[in-house]
Design a protein that fits this description.
The structure holds 2 protein chains of 2 kinds.
Chain A (H helix, E strand, L loop, with lengths): L6 H28 L13 H22 L7 H7 L6 H25 L1 H15 L5 H22 L21
Helix pairs in contact in A: 1-2, 4-5, 5-6
Chain B lengths: L1 H11 L2 H19 L5 H12 L4 H26 L11 H9 L3 H34 L4 H19 L3 H16 L1 E2 L6 E2 L13 H20 L17 H6 L2 H16 L5 H15 L11 H25 L5 H12 L6 H6 L1 H32 L4 H20 L2 H19 L5 H23 L6 H4 L1 H18 L2 H7 L6
Antiparallel strand pairs in B: 1-2
Helix pairs in contact in B: 1-16, 2-3, 2-4, 2-16, 3-4, 3-9, 3-14, 3-17, 4-5, 4-6, 4-13, 4-14, 4-16, 5-6, 5-13, 6-11, 6-13, 6-16, 7-8, 7-19, 7-21, 8-19, 9-17, 9-18, 11-12, 11-13, 12-13, 14-19, 17-18
Classes of the chains: A mainly alpha, B mainly alpha.
Chain lengths: 178, 499
């Protein structure tokens, strides 16, 4: 089988798995030992099971490493999609993907200080536009409709308290008897 | 069995439950029809909403999504030759040729009717066998439960992916994620890094939404065609499809049995069931039936099998707390969120809820048939929804759902982080479903292992002293050894037919 060009990525992910194993042992040696929960009987030994699991991951990781050293790289989704090339330029799709991830991050940062309604309307509207939803008025209308629908279901029907932000706005669903 | 159903009837006979089951079924058909979503995603997206509902209403809604979603994929498979879910992959073999021959309405109608009948068959087997299995398991102690949890963890990883070793690794990763927080037995803080937001652990909804929904959004964008609007024909479906389906009653019965059997085997998914049922139906068919060129029997076989799988998969999930597939693992998570412990205790202490869930499952299949036929034009029009609107909508629903569980922005951050983790793992062929199974079964396995060791006079020897636990663990060990054997060694041990 031929080597896939993203072999480095496979090794990095495997390295991260070994990193998790190392982290488990580091925590057992420090935090759990300090709490006297890294040894003793099964009741007090909180490290017993995670240790076994970490050792299992390490063992399985060695098998995967062996497979990769023998040149057996699985055909992951990235490889599969390379064969099935979309009509748009890949770099543009990548940019859109990064923009959506960035907007998601902005959403998380804005949600509590700005409030659910305004944040959702702005960020989801921006997502529609980033993904080339046109005309603009339709994207704005869709964003407003989606915000209202989500608010109605979660705040009105399920009585979830969503962040109100600096505006302190809460839709008056009680007027509808909800 | 009947007492369960009678006690459950009181819980299900409420407008809220009936409406939610109907809505769940419709929602399931919608997410099933939309390529890239599917029943698992539907359940994940509405899991937070279930948290706010009474147990039978919440579980009924989620199970209805599972039932509807397992069928919805057939609509896009038949009309677009794109299975909405992998479960419908075998349906397009005959469904699409039927649509090309101008019989799209018949194909969709038969798919819905066969799914509903298959699902109903699976439900009857569920009602008959789950209480019996729970009755047997009620005598199990911690060693047997540990062995069963190991089986559940392993079977999904072994069967669910091309890369078994990676599946086992991600299953273990799920166990470690579940270990974060306060250890219930020793009260020690594990992997919390003195961050009080981690003391209660990482919420399963945040992990699941991040891993599946957020990573899926990224993959949908990468696939491109964001503004593409599929050219879909308007289709009318009639209730006459039921009679067309019933003409293949032996095929229906056989395929439903195959589906239920594969569903009840943890890890053996509806995909295997539908292809197996198709292969057998084709082998049994008369030459003039023209399988592969638009045979009604082909659609009947695949759709009845993959929906019968739902009932089958719920048997080990409810009776033994071993999820039959990833969607069942999330359903099990929903039971835990609602304060119910899956397994024999559920049947002993919450028999009315079990009965209600059984009846909700049957009701979901009735709604699947009625609403599926009536609302097909709606589902067909939804297929025209552009991805540029779909992706942000799914993202919003995911995030608000995660927030709603504990009103915590930290959960959203965890979801975001797990979104990145899920994306990277999928890119490099690490299956995600075993992580969910690991999160759910990990604490069960750990608790029972430690309880077994406390009961034991001599450490791990307790497993050798308990015949049932020993047998289950021995089978697990044999399976794992078989899986880890190099292919050439396997080839020597089991010579191929050609050889």
């Amino acid at each position: 089988m031929d080597r896939k060009p993203n072999a480095l990525g496979h090794w990095l992910v495997l390295g991260a798995m070994f990193g998790i194993v190392a982290l488990v042992f580091q925590q057992i040696a420090t935090s759990l030992t300090d709490q006297r929960a890294a040894s003793g009987d099964a009741l007090s030994n909180a490290a017993l099971f995670p240790r076994w699991v970490a050792i299992t991951i390490a063992g399985l990781g060695l098998i995967v490493a062996g497979q990769m050293l023998m040149g057996r790289y699985p055909k992951g989704e990235s490889a599969a999609e390379a064969e099935d090339c979309p009509p748009e330029p890949r770099s543009r799709l990548r940019l859109q993907e990064i923009a959506i991830a960035g907007l998601t991050l902005i959403y998380l940062l804005m949600l509590e200080p700005v409030g659910f309604h305004l944040t959702t309307f702005l960020v989801i509207g921006a997502m529609f536009l980033v993904l080339d939803a046109r005309p603009v008025w339709r994207a704005v209308a869709a964003s407003a409709a989606l915000t209202l629908a989500a608010s109605f279901v979660f705040e009105g029907l399920l009585k979830v308290i969503l962040p109100v932000g600096f505006l302190g706005f809460t839709p008056p669903y009680h007027l509808l008897g909800l | 069995m009947f007492d369960l159903l009678i006690s459950g009837a009181g819980l299900i006979a409420s407008p809220l439950v009936i409406i939610l089951v109907a809505l769940g079924c419709t929602g399931g058909l919608l997410v099933g029809a939309l390529p890239g979503l599917g029943p698992l995603m539907g359940i994940i997206l509405l899991l937070p909403a279930a948290f706010y509902l009474p147990p039978v209403a919440g579980m009924g809604m989620l199970i209805a999504i599972y039932v509807g979603g397992s069928c919805g994929g057939a609509i896009s498979a038949i009309l677009l030759r794109i299975p909405g879910t992998p479960l419908a992959a075998a349906t397009l073999l005959d469904g699409y040729p039927m649509a090309k021959a101008g019989r799209a309405g018949d194909a969709i109608g038969v798919a819905i009717a066969a799914s509903a009948i298959g699902g109903m068959f699976g439900g009857i087997i569920l009602i008959l066998f789950a209480p019996m299995l729970a009755q047997i398991a009620v005598n199990f102690g911690p060693p047997e439960y540990f062995a069963l949890a190991v089986t559940g963890l392993m079977s999904i990883a072994v069967v669910s992916s091309e890369s078994t070793v990676k599946g086992l690794m991600t299953g273990c990763l799920g166990i470690l994620i579940a270990a974060v927080g306060t250890d219930t037995m020793s009260n020690a803080m594990r992997f919390t890094f003195d961050n009080h937001n981690l003391f209660g652990g990482i919420h399963i909804v945040a992990v699941v939404v991040g891993l599946f929904a957020l990573s899926e959004a990224a993959f949908q964008i990468e696939e491109g065609k964001l503004d593409a609007r599929p050219d879909v024909l308007n289709v009318k479906v009639s209730f006459r499809s039921l009679f067309l389906t019933l003409r293949h009653r032996w095929n229906l019965l056989r395929s439903s049995t195959i589906g239920t059997f594969f569903g009840a085997l943890p890890g053996a998914s509806g995909i295997i069931a539908s292809f197996t049922a198709y292969a057998i139906a084709k082998a049994q068919a008369r030459p003039e039936e023209n399988y592969g060129k638009g045979a009604v029997g082909g659609v009947v076989a695949t759709e009845s099998a993959n929906n019968a799988c739902c009932g089958g998969a719920l048997i080990p999930t409810l009776a033994l707390a071993i999820p039959g597939d990833a969607a069942c693992a999330v359903l099990m998570g929903a039971l835990l969120l609602l304060g119910l412990q899956p397994g024999p205790q559920l049947f002993t202490f919450s028999g009315d809820i079990v009965g209600g869930v059984f009846l909700a499952y049957l009701l979901a299949n009735v709604f699947l048939f009625v609403l599926g036929i009536l609302l097909t034009p709606v589902f067909v029009s939804v297929l025209k929804l552009r991805k540029q609107y779909l992706v942000p909508s799914v993202l919003l629903l995911s995030m608000i759902g995660v927030y709603a569980i504990q009103s915590s922005v930290y959960d959203l951050w965890f979801a975001f982080i797990f979104g990145i983790v899920g994306y990277v793992l999928r890119k490099f062929d690490y299956p995600l479903s075993p992580i969910v199974i690991g999160i759910i079964l990990g604490p069960i396995a750990e608790g029972n292992l430690r309880r077994s060791l406390l009961l034991s006079q001599d450490g791990l020897s307790i497993f050798a002293e308990r015949p049932i636990a020993l047998t289950i663990l021995a089978i697990d060990l044999l399976v794992i050894l078989w899986v880890l054997l190099p292919r050439r060694v396997k080839g020597r041990l089991v010579p191929s037919r050609a050889g």
